[in-house]
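Morning!

This is the sequence you dropped in the shared folder:
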Amino acid sequence: MAKGYWIVRVTVRDQDHYPEYLAAAQLAFEKHDAKFLVRGGNFDTMEGSARERNVVVEFADCATAIACYRSPEYQAARSLRQKYAESDFIIIEGAAATAKARGRAALSSTNSQNTIRRTALLRRIFDALMRARERRAEFYLGRQLRNSGGRLTDDIERRMMQQATRIGNIWF
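The structure's back. Tokens below.
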């Protein structure tokens, strides 16, 4: 059975009072086992228009998503949302599990080869970055030793160890 989703795009007009809506809606969400997949966050508008806040809420099925929306708990919260924000709100049925399974089976052989290639490429990139960071750390510590006149006293060694630790925490 396909899951049900709320897709909501919001422009908040009253930032101070909008949390009242969120608190009131929480009762309906808990009652209907809502799971937030997207709640605000950074986004890029690729086409069309956008609002400042985007929300995707997952429910067990479309009937549960509709029941949550029509529940007395959410209707009370809804009036607050409409008072403090402008919204685009849809309830949509997700893709059926069988369609997903068919799609996965067709792509599995191609995806596994691509995954192996991507993994190998990412590993080479990661290794190269780590070698570059190690070279930078060695260069930095060598410069510190040269600046001390090439003498490695206990004090200089202690400062270099502190620097190495600091570099490790920043660069690694």
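Headline: Helices lie at 18-31, 62-70, 72-84, 97-147, 154-171.

More detail when I'm at my desk.
O.
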